[in-house]
Specification:
Blueprint (H helix, E strand, L loop, with lengths): L2 H5 L2 H15 L4 H9 L4 E5 L5 E4 L6 E3 L4 E6 H4 L4
Amino acid sequence: MNIIFNRMSESDRLAKLRKLAEFEGFDDPMELVRSAIFDGVSPGICVVCDATAEVEPDQDRGYCENCREGFIVAAPVLAGII
């Protein structure tokens, strides 16, 4: 698992989820999560630099083009569902 994500508090994870929802045009972060669970791809956010990317819904260490490391986490993982 992504070591930085592992060390994040629940409030930090939810803050990243809210930011990702805002970037994706959702008013409610849980609407974003519901949408992502039933799709083959999910929006993800880098836990370091806030870059976004489409990833698998269970992704917890997707490659960030900006950081050049595996820091992208999918919305359902941030929400603690997966």
